[in-house]
Write a structure and sequence with these properties.
With 239 residues, the protein is of the alpha/beta class. The protein has a single domain, classed as Acetylglutamate kinase-like (Carbamate kinase), CATH 3.40.1160. 36% of the residues lie in helices and 19% in strands. It is built from eight helices and eleven strands. The chain has a nine-stranded mixed β-sheet, with helices on both faces. Strands 7-8 form a two-stranded antiparallel sheet. Helix 5 runs parallel beside helix 7. It starts with 7 loop residues before the first strand and ends with a strand. The mean pLDDT is 94.
Length: 239
C-alpha cells in the first residue's frame, strides 16, 4: 500500500466528466475508469468522499437563461446530481468499494439524508461517501457544495477533477499560448477571474485554509498519482 500525505479528501467531479465522448448523459466506461481510480486511492488508506455535478443532464444556469425560474431550475439540477451519484455508487460497488449516497434533499427511498456526523462515521468505516443534491439550496453550485462538504468533513484537501491537467491562464483547448500554473493563491484565482471554481467556493476554501488540487480526471490513475504529489496538477493555497 502506497502511503499518502492526505488522510481524508473530497473529489469533485463535474457532470460533464461522466459523459466521456458522448454529447449527453453517462458514459459507462468513463464512470468505471473514475471508480477504479477512487478504489486505488481508497486502497492507499485514504478516506474519500465525492461531489458530482449534474451538467451532463441539466444545468440550472442554462435553464434559467432559457426563461425558467432560477430557483426551480436549480432544484432540477440538484435532482440531476442525485441521478449521477446513484450511477457512480453502482460503478464503485462494481469494483468492490462500499459506498453511501447522502442527499441534501431527503429522498429516503433511494438514499440517506445528509447528516454530518453520519457521513463522518461512514468515512471512518472506510466507505466512500457521495454527497448529492448540492447544498440543498438554489443559487449555489456544486463547486460550493464540494468546498462546504470538504470543510464539514474535515478533509485535508479538495481535489477538482477537470478535463485539463491544472489551471491555465486561458482555455488550453482554444488558446495554444495558454500557460499552466503549478501553484496559485486563492486571491490570484479570484483577481484573475480564472475559471476553476466559482468565487463562493474559492472564498470559503480560503477562509478555512482548504487546499484545492486541480488535475485531469480523464487520465487513468491521475487521482492516485496526484495524491502522491506526482504528475501534473495545480495547487491553490494561501501563501
Amino acid at each position: 500500500m502506497t502511503i499518502s500525505a492526505y488522510k481524508r479528501v473530497l473529489l469533485k467531479v463535474s457532470g460533464e466528466a461522466l459523459m466521456g465522448g458522448r454529447d449527453y448523459g453517462l458514459d459507462l466506461d468513463m464512470m468505471m475508469a473514475i471508480a477504479s481510480d477512487v478504489r486505488d486511492v481508497v486502497a492507499m488508506g485514504v478516506e474519500v468522499s465525492l461531489v458530482i455535478g449534474g451538467g451532463n443532464i441539466f444545468r440550472g444556469v442554462s435553464g434559467a437563461a432559457s426563461g425558467m425560474d432560477r430557483a426551480q431550475a436549480d432544484y432540477i439540477g440538484m435532482l440531476a446530481t442525485v441521478m449521477n451519484a446513484l450511477a457512480m455508487q453502482s460503478a464503485l460497488e462494481r469494483v468492490a468499494v462500499p459506498t453511501r449516497v447522502l442527499s441534501a434533499i431527503p429522498m429516503a427511498t433511494i438514499c440517506e439524508p445528509y447528516i454530518r456526523r453520519r457521513a463522518q462515521r461512514h468515512m471512518e468505516k472506510g466507505r466512500v461517501v457521495i454527497f448529492a443534491a448540492g447544498t440543498g439550496n438554489p443559487f449555489f453550485t456544486t463547486d460550493t457544495a464540494a468546498a462546504l462538504r470538504a470543510i464539514e468533513m474535515g478533509c485535508d484537501a479538495l481535489f477538482k477533477g477537470t478535463q485539463v491537467d491544472g489551471v491555465y491562464s486561458a482555455d488550453p483547448r482554444k488558446d495554444p499560448d495558454a500557460v499552466r500554473h503549478d501553484e496559485l493563491t486563492y486571491l490570484e484565482v479570484l483577481s484573475r477571474d480564472l475559471n476553476v471554481m466559482d468565487a463562493a467556493a474559492i472564498s470559503i476554501s480560503r477562509e478555512n485554509d482548504l487546499p484545492i488540487i486541480v488535475f485531469n480526471i480523464h487520465e487513468a490513475g491521475a487521482f492516485q498519482q496526484v495524491m502522491r504529489g506526482e504528475g501534473l496538477f495545480t495547487r491553490i493555497i494561501e501563501k
